[in-house]
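Practice record 12: protein with DQA.
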Amino acid sequence: MPTILVLNGPNLNLLGTREPATYGSTTLADVEALCAAAGQKLGFAVECRQSNHEGVLIDALHEAGHGFKAGSVAGVVFNAGAYTHSSVALHDAIRAIEVPVIEVHISNVHARESFRHHSWLSPVAAGIIVGFGVDGYVMAIEALARKAAAKG
Ligand code: DQA
C-alpha cells in the first residue's frame, strides 16, 4: 500500500490550544487520526510527522523522495507553518525530490498579515489548499489520491 506523508512544521504540535480563533480547537493528534482515516478510505497508508526544526523537515522530505523513487511513497501533504514564508531551504528540498507536495494552511494566509502572503513553497508545490481549516489536510490527501490514480 503506497504511503502519503503528512508533514507538519513549527508550532503545529500546539494545535488545539494555539490561537484557537485562528486554528480551531482540533489537536494535532485529531488531525493525524482524520488523515489516517482518509488515507485508509482511499487505499493509502498515512505516515504523520511533525517537527519544529527546519533540518528535520528537510530530512523527512529527502526520505520521501527516496520512497517516491522506490514506488512506496505517493506524495506529501505539507504544512510548513511559518517556514512557508521564510525557507528557501524547504523550497530547494521540494524542488530536489520531485515528489508531489501539496501545501496546506489551516487559515487563509491571504486574509492575514502581509508577511504571510508570500510562500517559498507554492512555486514548487503540486497544489495548494488554504483556508479550509483542518479539512484541508483531508482535501490534500484526496488530491494526492487523484494524482496517483491519474498517473496509473
Ligand atoms: C499556517 C499559517 C502560517 O502563516 C503560520 O505561521 C502557521 C500555520 C496555517 O496552517 O494556517 O504556523 O501554516
